[in-house]
Predict the 3D structure of the following.
Amino acid sequence: MRIPLVGKDSIESKDIGFTLIHEHLRAFSEAVRQQWPHLYNEDEEFRNAVNEVKRAMQFGVKTIVDPTVMGCGRDIRFMEKVVKATGINLVAGTGIFIFIDLPFYFLNRSIDEIADLFIHDIKEGIQGTLNKAGFVKIAADEPGITKDVEKVIRAAAIANKETKVPIITHSNAHNNTGLEQQRILTEEGVDPGKILIGHLGDTDNIDYIKKIADKGSFIGLDRYGLDLFLPVDKRNETTLRLIKDGYSDKIMISHDYCCTIDWGTAKPEYKPKLAPRLSITLIFEDTIPFLKRNGVNEEVIATIFKENPKKFFS
């Protein structure tokens, strides 16, 4: 299967190379940006994205998967500009990022109608361009699987069956939403190997993570540096334990880094207090060296960052 890239020709999955599976060029509150554009500085956002992508590329990153969809501020033309300035392989997605309710537009609209929007992005292109989505992104968090969240999950399953693109999720690692997402998707007929349950690295509950992997899905240890959820050292120990227990072929590692974000977490006190080491290169500066010091060889590193993304998209 070929993987669509933003601003470039598609590539064969075997050519994906070293991949960061969950990073954001920027994230913002769509309604706020539309109503009060004076709060935003696109030139600064662009510089931030270009600088951070180039830093990642210096460590050998060839492909970045950006799961910024509706609800997080997806802007395919902004992504195109960053690709042109850096040369990175960027995979964009479709989907809806909500924790509770869908926007009023979707009142009385069916799951099939939501799925049709995802399929349009995959087959026709995103936001009036020829850039096609390479995956579907869905979310569930503290409120759990609400009625509208479940509609989006089931719509993602329909899109997967129609187009064969994989599904990446945002889950809350402490309230079973990852297992529930997996259950609903597989109930709808999605191959578990085409599901990446995200943010499982926010917990060191090994048994919970293994339950998801044992059912055939990829496990996202993809918030490295977000110490407010789990410190780096505990994330490293969890990753090492999973590797030693034979789960390297299910692991995906990333940061969930946002080159610019306008959420409450963007307050000046956020980074030094709650995520003092968060960056798009933390895994190269800390996690990979830690794993190697503890006996993890280059073949396993390649499995996690190259082979697993290749399998996921193939």
